[in-house]
Each structure stands twice: as structure tokens, then as C-alpha cells.
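tmp note - Homoserine dehydrogenase
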Amino acid sequence: MSVIKVAILGFGTVGEGFYRTIQSHAEELTAVLGKKVEVAAILIKNKQKERDINKDVLVTTEFTDILNLPQLDVVVEAIVDKDPTYIFLKKAIERGCHIITANKEMFAHYGQELLELAKEHHVSVGYEATVAGGIPVIQTLRQLLNVNRVQQVQGILNGTSNFILTEMREKKLSFAQALRAAQENGFAEADPTNDVEGFDAFYKAMILSRLAFGEEPNWHAVERLGITSITRELIDTAERLGLRFKHIASISKSSHQLKVSVKPVLVGNEHPLYHVEGVQNAVNISSDIVGQITLQGPGAGMYPTASAVIEDLVYVCQNRPESQGLLSTSETNTAISDLEQKEENWLLAGLFNNAIDPSIKLIEHVEDGTWIAKGKKGEIEALSTQNNELIFFPIIGEYEKEQISARVAL
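out:
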């Protein structure tokens, strides 16, 4: 029986999980691919560290040792750094290898170049594990894009931030206390900036934007806000109104403008992301034929991520080289209105100056300094420049005054 030779770059959580899964699911892989999958080599940083790796696997600190293997079919990259992983994968493609990556920061920066290079060399790229861990978002979008026109993608793409917001609401913790719990449980790094300030979700949003709409926005034009301004008091207020804070990446496109944001918003219980709690991730996709579908599951962890990489292994080994699901800009045509001109509902906190633009409608006084208002984004931002203490959060979905009054009265 012929063999598929695989090299793994990195042996941390993702790399080791993938290696163990190949061992535990060897029969299933052989049945699906018609070939045996063997790990030929693993790239590591520290050769002195003890690892449970079969003796017939080349364990090396030099990537050139891997490139020089007599047979190499697939290179799986599971390293967290942006560089030199791009160079490693570029060289692997040039050698004629399929590549798979779980590195969202690297792929957000260099994914387009790698996809184009792979097309030139007639190999495939798997990147399911770069977004939402074990949830098959990439494969779902690839299938939808055969005929459906995707109109909007919304997702909770960072489990750490979602865990913190859940802990603050359910256990009445402060942000600092919930962050500490996330760190103690291994969900947050010692430096949590990438998670709580939205950088991690931002990279994932750029990858989804490129796949769903064939392009990505100017990175500097993307509204990226973290969750550090959300207090326990704000969460309590939202809960009394039947709302929950969620840190959501949103991607949509009108006929002339791509809109991407990563920010905290308020959702009601009719929203598909309302019940997504803890470290779970979820993605809601709206398209013109199928309508709305929501995928939910674990966004991180050894085996959820290994599941995504394993499925990518099957994908790259089975699929003929193609465009990887990318569309040209001209192929997308949705009817989403310009969000800057659309009136939305907002939760305003710190509004003590009632001299506001009359175009902003104050719907309901919730408590001292806190209002539900209706207005355009630009108008709300202008108001915040006049009121230094004002913070504001959009409310996604329909939310009527009668509903608010009923809840506040409880």
C-alpha cells in the first residue's frame, strides 16, 4: 500500500494533538484516503525535552532536514509565530507539498500569497484550524460558495473573551477577577492582550473575509474594540434588559463597500449567538439561498483543533488543486445597506448631558446616566466626543420600547 508522508512543524498543543490523532485514527484515515498516513518528521525547538514520539520519526530542529526527506507529501504547520513559518510553508509548496496551517496570525498576513503560490504549484492549502478551532467553518463556506451568495458572517471567534464575559455575568465577577479565572484555567495567556483587545478575533475575521467575499478591508479601517471597558455593572444592566454582551466579529458587503468590525455588542435572546457561553465559539452565516446557518463548538484545545487539522489532511489529499474557495470581488453582489446610514439601537452609559442631536432618539431611561437610544453610528460617535464619560454599545436585532419597559419594571 502506498503511503502519505507528513511532516509536523511544532509539537505544542496542536502539533502533538494532530500526531496523537493520526495514531488513534489510522484505520479511519486509511479507509478514507486509500493510503496509510505516516508522520515522517517533526520540527521542534528543544531537542533535550522528553517527548513521546516513535523512534522511526525524524525529530529535528532544522527545517532543511525536513525538506531533504526523500518523500514528503504534506507539511502541517502548528507554530504560533508569524515568522519564519511563512518561509517554511513557502518552501514546502515550492517543493510540491500540500500545506496545512493552524496559525491564524501568519495566515492573516500571508494567506493570499500562499494560496496563489499553491495554485501555481498544483497543491492544496488547508487552513480550517486558523478559525474557530474544531468548528468546520472554512469547509462550510467553501461548500456554500459553490452557488450561494454569502451576505454576512458574524461570529464569536475568541473563547477567552467569551469565557470572561460569561463569568462576569453568571458569577458576578469583575473584569479583573474573570480574567484571572481564565488564566488559572489555561484559557488566557499571562499577557492576554491578543484576546481581550480583539487582535485574535481580528486575524480570524480577515481570513473569513477573504474566503467569503474574495477580499479583505484595509486593516487600519476595521473597527476593532476589546472588552476591557465592560464592567460588571454594565453586564447587570444588560441582563435586566434581557440582553447579553458578546464580542462579535462581523463581516458584510454591499455592492460598493466591505464592512468588517470586531467589537462588543448587545444581543437579545432571538439572536443565534445569545446562548453561546464559556470558551465556545460560534459562527452565523447568512446567504441568499440557504438563509441563516449557525455552527457552534469548541474554539480551542488539543483535540478540537486536531480534528480541524485532520479534516484538512483529508481535504488536501483528496481535492484537486483549485481556487481554495476564493471569489473575485466582482462575483459578490449582496443587498446590505450602508451601515453608516442605518439607524440602530444603542445602550448609552454615562449620558449626563441631555443636550444631544435631536436626530438621536432617547427611547428609554434605564437608570442614572444609562439610556436606550436609536440613531446612526456617526451620530452616536459625535455624541461621545461631546460627552467624555460616554460609552456606547450597539444592540443587534429588533428591540422595542415595550420590551424594555416590561423588563425594567421587573
